[in-house]
Amino acid sequence: MYLIILGPPGAGKGTQSVLLAKLLSIKHLSTGEILRKAVTEGTELGLKAKAVMDAGNLVSDDIMIGIIRDAISTDDAKNGFILDGFPRTLKQAVELDKIMIELGYEGLKVINITIDDDELVRRMIGRGRVDDSAETIKNRLSVYKGQTAPVREHYMQKSAVFDIYGIGNINDINNEIVALLKGKKFKNQD
Ligand code: ADP
Fold it and tell me: With a threshold of 0.90, does the pTM exceed it?
C-alpha cells in the first residue's frame, strides 16, 4: 500500500503515520524527521536546511525530491510506504507521480487530515520544537495554505483522497482511517 498523509503542521500526521506504518507493515518516511536528523548530525543537507526550517519556510523542491526518490527506491519501501511531510508543493507532487511510474508503483492513496487553525496553534505551542515559536508557526500556516493545500486538489483529480477530521481520540482517528482505506470508495469516483 502506497500512502501519502497530508494536512497542516500540527494536524497529527506524524502520530497517525507511525500507527499506520506499524499496522500495515509499511515504511514510514517523514521528511521533517529526515531533515531534523541531518541538522543534528551536521551533514551538508542539515547545514543547508537548518535556517530554512527554523524560519518555517520550505527546503527546495530539488533537494526534497532527491531525498524522496532515494527513500522510496529501496527494497523495504517497495512493499509499501507512508509519506509524511511530502509532497508539500505541486511540483513535488508532479515529480512524485513520475517517480512512482518509473518505479512501477501503482495505487497511491491520500489521507488528508483537516483541523481548525486555533487547535493547530495550541498543539504546536505545546509541542515546543525549535520551529514552533509564535512567529514561525504563523509563517508555516501561511506556507501550508499557499503551497501545500493545492496538493490535495492535485490528487482529487487522480487518486483516492480520504478527508479525516483530526480532532478526537488518537486511536479513534486511526480506526477511522483504516476503515476508509479498507472499504470506502474514492470520494471523486463515479
Ligand atoms: P510539520 O508538519 O509539523 O510542519 P515537519 O516535521 O513535517 O513539520 O517539517 C518541518 C520542516 O521541515 C518544514 O517546516 C520545512 O521547513 C521542512 N520540510 C519538511 N518536509 C518538506 C518538504 N517536503 N518540502 C520542503 N520542506 C520540507
Answer: yes
Q: Which domains does the chain have, with CATH numbers?
A: 2-183 (3.40.50.300)
C-beta of residue 117 within 8 angstroms of C-beta of residue 90: no
Residue 162's φ and ψ, nearest 5 degrees, are: -115, 115
**Strand 160-165's sheet: what is its strand order?**
27-30, 81-84, 2-6, 108-114, 160-165
**Residue 159 pLDDT:** 85
Element (H, E) at 111: strand 108-114
CB 108 within 8 A of CB 100: yes
User: Could you tell me where the DSSP H helices lie in 42-185?
Assistant: 44-54, 61-73, 75-78, 90-103, 117-127, 134-143, 149-156, 170-182
- 10-residue mean pLDDT profile of the chain (190 residues): values are 96 97 98 98 97 97 98 96 98 98 96 94 90 92 96 93 96 96 61
Could you tell me the distance, in angstroms and rounded to a whole number, from the CA of residue 83 to the centre of ligand 1?
12
**From the CB of 50, is ligand 1 less than 6 Å away?**
no
Please tell me the residue having the least CA distance from ligand 1 atom 14: 56
